[in-house]
Amino acid sequence: MGVYDKNDIRQWISDNLREDPVVIEAGVYDGSDTAWFAQKYPKGQIYGFEPLDAPFQLAYNTLCNFDNVTLCKYALGPKTGDANMYECDWRSGASSLKKPTEIKEFHPTIKWIGETKVDVVNLDEFASENGIDMVDFMWLDMQGSENEVIQSSKDIVSKTKYIYSEVSLMNMYEGVPLINEYKSNMKELGFEVVWEDLPWKDMGDILFENVKYD
């Protein structure tokens, strides 16, 4: 959420990923980060997920000419099927499968629309059906659903080298673990913190490394 400088993570990615990485990005939004991956790694394969109509169309318009991008109109979730997403004005980037709580007070200018039914896919099932047997980099920006997705897709997560994930410092959405619990959960799965980017009071990002690939 908000405006921030992505140069640091993009530089880290440029320095550390192989020339043909497999990338999974959930929360594609307008496709700008996805396009950066596609241009940076023409030999790679990028899978992007965006379930809502307006941002999906923007992303499609940005990405439709990239042969190395698979854009999927799904939300990632614990079970394949459908679910209600709490939708806001797409420009805010705050829509979530998780019920908004303190975010309404912390960001009072966000315009909430209501609940919208979206298609959901489990990441382990998606990986199996699409022949993805390892992932170089996951970029997860799902407004509180990150932990649930990771915990419900442990097979492909165990075969992932790096995960760059949004984390919560406040109870912005219902039932979302805060940063220390989240880091503990990741450690149990074999991931260590590479670095943290926590410029705001409510949410930030952490880069995790799977220690078995160290």
Task: Tell me what the structure shows.
The chain has 214 residues and is of the alpha/beta class. It has one domain (23-213): Rossmann fold, CATH 3.40.50.150. Helix content is 29%, strand content 30%. It has 8 helices and 10 strands. It has helices at 7-16, 32-40, 53-63, 103-106, 123-129, 146-151, 154-158, 179-188, and strands at residues 22-26, 45-49, 69-72, 75-76, 81-88, 112-121, 135-140, 160-168, 191-197, 203-210. The strands form 2 sheets. Strands 3-2-1-7-8-10-9 form a 7-stranded mixed β-sheet, with helices on both faces. Strands 4-6-5 form a 3-stranded mixed β-sheet. Strand 1 (22-26), helix 2 (32-40) and strand 2 (45-49) form a beta-alpha-beta unit. It is globular and about 45 Å long. The chain starts with 6 loop residues before the first helix and ends with a strand.
Can you tell me the overall shape?
globular
The end-to-end distance, rounded to whole angstroms, is 30 Å
Task: Examine the coordinates and then state which fold CATH places here, giving the name of the CATH topology.
Answer: Rossmann fold
**Total strand segments:** 10
Q: Which stretches of 5+ consecutive residues score pLDDT under 50?
A: none
Can you identify the CATH superfamily? Vaccinia Virus protein VP39
User: The biggest beta sheet, please?
Assistant: 7 strands, mixed
Number of helices: 8
